[in-house]
Each structure stands twice: as C-alpha cells, then as structure tokens.
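Page header: ASSEMBLY MODEL / two components / 706 residues total.
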Amino acid sequence: MRHTRMISLAAMVASSGLVLTACGSAGGGPASGGDSKLSDDKVVLGLLNDQSGVYKDLSGPNSKVAIEMAIADYKAKYGDDAVAKNIEIVMADHQNKPDIANTKAQEMYDRDKADIILDVPTSSAALAVATQAKAKKKLHINVGAATTALTGKSCNKYTFHWAYDTYMLANGTGTVLVGEGGKNWSIVYPDYAFGQDMTKSFTAAVEKGGGTVQQSIATPFPNDNFATFITKAESSKPDVIGIMAAGGDLVNFVKQYNQAGLQGKTTLAVGLMFITDIHTLGVEQFAGTTFTDAWYWNMDAESKAWADKFKEKTNTRPSFAHAGNYSAALQYLEAIQEAGTDGSDDVVAKLEGKKVNDVFLRNGEIRAGDHRVLHDAYLVKVKDKANVKEEWDYEEIIKTIPAAEAFNPTVSADCKM
Amino acid sequence: MTEFLQYTLQGLAAGGFYALAALGLAVIFGVLGVVNFSHGACYMLGAMVAALLLQHFDLGFWPALVIVPVIMFFFGVLVERLLVQWLLRLDPLYNFLLTFGLTLLTVDVMKRQFGVSSLKYQVPAGLEGRFTIGSVDLSVYQLFAAAFAVVICLAVWMILTKTRVGMIVRAATEDAERSRALGINVARWVTPVFGFGIALAGLAGVLAAPYRAINADMGSNFIIILFAIVVIGGLGSILGAVVAGFLVGLVEAYGQGYYGQLSQVLIFVLMAAVVLIRPAGLFGREEVA
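Prediction written out in full:
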C-alpha cells in the first residue's frame, strides 16, 4: 500500500515537471511584414519525428539532412528566381507519443511559424498532428506513419500521406505473393489494434488474390516465447507464414522461427518491416523474408546517386523515410514556386492532382480526393548473406507494383475533405 | 497426440530455461530475504554484455557463458556492498523499492547508450538445426539450453545442500545470531550469495541471447513471469523454483497451443490457484514466507 502511494507521488512530481517545461517554452513570435509573398518573409519546414526511440534510425535526425538536400536542390534549380529564398528547418522529438506530438505540433505552427510539418511516424501521433494541421490551416505531409485513417476518416484539406500505408503493405505482400504461388497462409499476429488491423488487411488481400488464410493465430503482446505458436502456424503446412508483429516481438519471432529450422523452407512474409530492422539484427536472420517497401536506395542509378550523396553527409544509407522526406520537402517547395506564395490554400491547390516523378516518387500522383500519394511500390526479398556486396545491400526487388495497383484505387467513403 | 507431445516437449524446454532464470531470485530471497526486482534487469544486462562482447571483442557464445556470469557476479557484489546491505535490517519492502529503482535506472541507461533496437546475436555453431524424435521435433539450441539449465540447477542445489559452504550459508540465514556465536562470519557470506544470484540472472541472459530479442526492455516482461514462478514454487525454495519453472513452461506451451492469446493469463491463473491452496507456494515453508 505504502509503496503504491510513493510511486504515484513520484509520478506526479515527474509529470508536473513536464507540464512546467511545456508552459515555460510557449511564447510569441515576430510579426510578419514587408511585401514578400511569404508569411514572415521565410518558409519554415518543421520536422517532427522520433529522435530517441524505436524509429530513430528509420527516420530521426537524418531526415533533417534529407530535407537540407531538398532545400539545396531547390535553390540550385531556381537560383535568384526562387520564391522561397529564406528557408529554415525546425526539428522536434515526439517520442512516438500522441500527446507530445500534439503539443509539439502546436508549438511548431504557432511559435516557430512552421508552414508545414513533415514526417511524423507512429499512427496515433500522426493523427494528432493531422488534427492540428486542419485546425491551424497549415500543411502536414506525413511520411513515416502507416494508418489509412490519414486518408480515411481523419483526412483533411491540409494533410497529405506521402510514402506508404497499411493497404499498400498488405496488398503488396499479400496479393502479390498469392499470385506467385503462395496460396495457403498462416498468419501470426499480436492481439492489439495494430496486429488486428494488419491481419484484417492481409486476409482481405490474400483472399482478393485467390488464396486462403487457413489460420490466424493471436498471440499475447508483448511476448517472448513463440515456439509453440510457430509449431501451430506450421501445422497446416502453409505456403506462407505471415507475421504481423513489430519491434522486439518481431525479432523474437524471427529468431525462433529460424531456430525451428523453417528459414528457407516456408516463405516468411513480414507485415511491416524497415531496412533498418534488417541492419540492426543482421541480414542472415532475415534472409529469404518477403515484405513490401516504398523505396530502396539501390533500386536504380538515380536512387543510388542520391543515396551516395546522402552517405557522404551521414555515413549511412537512406531508408525510404529519408528519401520520402526529401521528396515531400522538394515537392512542397516546388508548389510554393508555382504558386508564388507559401499561403496554405494556394500551395494545396498546386499540389492536388499533380503528377510527380523524383528520386522517391515513381509514376507519382497526388490524388486530389483524399491526398493519398500514389506511386510505384516494391515487393522485396531479403538477400542471402553470400549475395550482400556492401553494407546495407540487403534487398532484392522481386516485383515492382505499379502505382495504380499499389494503393487503394478508390477514395474511402469516410473521407470528407 | 503428436500435437500434445510436441507441446509438452516445447514446454519442458522452455521450463528448463525458466527454472534457471528463477533460481537466482530464489537463492537471493532464501539467503538474504531480499525480493530482488532487478533480476529482470540483470538478465537483460547478461544478454547485452554477451552481445557487446561479440561486437567489440569477437568473443562468442561459449566464452560469454563463462565471462558474463563473472562480470555479473562482481556487479552483484557492488550492488550489495553499496546499496542492498544498508537496508537488510529494515522491512523487505525497502529493498524491493531499491531494486525497483535500480531496474528503472539500468533500463534507461542501457536505452540511452544502445537505443531500443535489438542487438545482433547468432546461434552458436554446432547448435543450429532441428532434432527429431519420431513425429516430434525441437530446435537443437532449445534442447541444449534446457539441458544446460537443468545441470546448473542441480549443481546449485548440490552446493547448498551437500557441501560445507552450503551448510554455512543456510545456517547463517536460519539463525544469524547463533551462527555468529559458533564462530561463523555471517556477513562474509551474504555478499557472495547476492553476487551469485545476480550471476545466475546474467547466465540466463546469455542463454537467451541467441533466440530472443536483445534490448533494454527484454527483462521488463520477463521479471513478471519470474515472480509468478517463485511465488508458485514457494519464495526462497530452490526445488520450488525449478519445479515451478517447468510447470510454467508447460502451462505456457499448452496455452499457446490450445488457447492462443490466453497463454500468459493461464500462468497467473495457476499462480492464483496455488496461492489460494498453499499460500507459501508448492515447496515454501510457512516460516520462510
């Protein structure tokens, strides 16, 4: 009894400290002036993502480098004719928490005078920022989050979804693998919102392709020991075992799957995986695994050239999120150039319906109806260690999924702009 | 039937590992009367140190099996000398809170230092693949881990019950005053026993490294299962920890096989049932608990 009281006291002290910091940092900004078409005479790009946690490597501080590259490319292209001459970046850590994302987004829009917020991984955090974007009538281009709600019931005029979503992941891996002969599936998923959503999307995608999901096995979350779940998944002799876990649970599952001697025997499809996962755990653990990627640094000469420039600055290879943030920042600046102003409504009008090709977006189109950005996606297989020629050389593209098929072809009925 | 046999085998294999992991917790409680909440964090440290030895010194699984427990032993000695010993005379709640705080601190320091992504580790050469008996099979590594754990458990039990050192340690905890009167330096034994318990946690961490995600959070869920095990077995009872370890392994495997998401709940249902029927646990003595 005594110790619960002590713990709650400690928690109260800690959280009140947090509130004080948040209040103390709010303040006024300079008033705008001059005859520039830009608010405050400058364009401010806000980068809001995970700088300390699980998605730090996926995007994090290196996305700032990617955005700086976009600014440099924009300035080089337009020189003295550039509408946006004074461009700033502000950056903050949302720790993957929606409440922090919400506060930080308000600070960015109000205090830092950000015209746009970029990135924002973690679905709940992304939805909080989308709500702020709508309220403040400032832009949000989401790169890092997966939820289709951003272009569904939470869609709004000022929010764009740039890189990927759960429909793309499920459709790419599910439908395409069935087409390649993986008819019978066992799905293992953690029993919480993310796992349930992914299982629903994957089951729909597998069935759309003409396959069957023989069993979907719910596991506790979090979970360390998957041995018996794996035996059970394998018992129906499936062609494909789909795993919908993420983070530590995904690592637990894959290690134990390999130890069960299944690596290479049954195709392992991972619902959501990033190249940074392969890098941290080692390519040998994931060899043969199939997943859908939004972009790969070594997929062609153009990407490779950009990835080389990125490596010079960061000493690492870019993930799709880095390239996605570059693309989003670049296309935003291009829209300002076309509109001649950074006024949100004018910029949105220029972005809507635009067809785009850049380092990241191939056959890209910014769909006006829900602000989903359609582009080519890639079904990839993780290479065997013997075929890895350099660090980060992990993925082999087995199929390019054309933009028209990669994303949901219809605008959700829930989306009212 | 094949299915049942397969689950049983997997349950026993997991159980061996649980027994070893819970053993240190039981030893520390049995001898010092300390409920060591930081046991999960020490298990995590064991796995992390093993991964770092591999990364920086190219020392693989086999050397780690020896080096890590030694490092963890001294870590335990340090913790006991600097912190735990000052609270031994007070209510056990104080040391519980102390080790709880230590856990938060350790986990956050490791997160800050090494991030939250998992570190790399491989199954040692020679222990890959699968072992088949008739219609059931098991990964070779899992079998090895379980057998290794059982050997360690037996050795610890032998040391504590059959040797002079074991007798002194047990006497010192049964009645410190009288042991002192007989010329035994009680304080001299408390510190190494605490270090030994922590070393066992570290050893369990090394065993887990090849088949579990190695990150700062890996001990946070694990400690809860370990507590369930020592409560079922009887706090402080070594035999109890081992039997309960196997029992929990089996319940978890049957749960996973037959009731999916209930697998972890079943462990706590078992715990509740045991506590209702035998409040001191299966092998606990009322006066210890």
